[in-house]
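Lecture 7 notes: from sequence to structure.

We start with a single chain of 125 residues. Read the sequence below before looking at the structure.
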Amino acid sequence: MRRMGRPGLIGTMARTAVIAGTAQAVGGNVSRRQQQRWQGQEQQAQQEQYAAEQAAYQQQQSQAQMAAMQAQLAQLEQQNAAPQVAAAPAGGDDLMAKLAQLAQMKEAGVLSDAEFAAAKAKLLG
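Now the structure, written as tokens:
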């Protein structure tokens, strides 16, 4: 006749092994899911940081381009203003006014030394 009630030593060991195996499997799954979640959060944080760095870089590039364009515009305005200033005192001698205008254009960098000399020779000669 079989005994009813508490299991024997082998039954207890088998039950403990089943419980331990189940606990290990569940713990492994939980650990694996947590690790995947942490990696996903790390990747998202890295992507956000990269996007922020890219936006800052693009903003710096835009500012540098804007500053360069403003400098070019100021230079062009200065070059265009120099001949207008030279044309104003043309009340007296026409030849002197043209020479003064050529000198101002040379100082402003519009004419090179060779161009200035050629224009001066043409006016005088």
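The radius of gyration is 44 Å. Keep this in mind for problem set 3.
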